[in-house]
Amino acid sequence: MGDQFDIGARLNAMRSAAGLSQRQLADRAGVPHAQISNVEKNKVSPSISTLRKILSGLGVSMADFFEPERRPLAGPFFNSDQLVDLTSKVAANSIGDGLGRMVFRQIGDARGHNLQMLHEVYEPQADTGETLLQHASSEGGFVVEGELEVTVGNEVRVLKAGEAYLFDSRIPHRFRNISDKRTVVISGCTPPYL
């Protein structure tokens, strides 16, 4: 498997370290018991919203899940190779329900600043998932390249390069690249979500 991140093994190790059974974690996270088992055995690849929900049952962020030993740099300046890669260790199609891959790179220490700044790349057909995201934050983003379909509540709009979004993240939302070209977004979220 090379340097591919093993979501199932990591979840199993974290759940065991917390002293929780699969059923206890499922109850805490509000997901079906079988879902924990299937993720741990790598039978299914969870969407961002599903993985985030499971991790909330452990009280763990996605950043800590994917980069447990990392120490964010203090800054104030960062080279491209100093951004914290939250998702590219996961094989294509592992996060999101779409066919395309997503990569989220975080700038610096999100917790320390109570602000998560991300460089996001959505390959064609990338999708955060049919289960809409929802969390206690505010978030905004600017489309640098390509097009991104953004759903916020009952509103849906395809944003093109130069357009932006800003909303209360407690409103269910979803991001999809429905085009055949790569989309790049710079976004911010406070308090940090991933």
UniProtKB/TrEMBL annotation:
Residues 11-65 form the HTH cro/C1-type domain. One of its GO terms (molecular function) is DNA binding. PANTHER family: HTH-TYPE TRANSCRIPTIONAL REGULATOR (PTHR46797), HTH-TYPE TRANSCRIPTIONAL REGULATOR PUUR (PTHR46797:SF11). InterPro entries: Cro/C1-type_HTH (IPR001387), Cupin_2 (IPR013096), Lambda_DNA-bd_dom_sf (IPR010982), RmlC-like_jellyroll (IPR014710), RmlC_Cupin_sf (IPR011051), TransReg_Diox_bact_type (IPR050807). The keyword DNA-binding applies. GO terms for cellular component: cytosol. It holds the Pfam family HTH_3. SUPFAM superfamilies: lambda repressor-like DNA-binding domains, RmlC-like cupins. PROSITE patterns: HTH_CROC1. Keywords: DNA-binding. It comes from the Bacteria. This is XRE family transcriptional regulator.
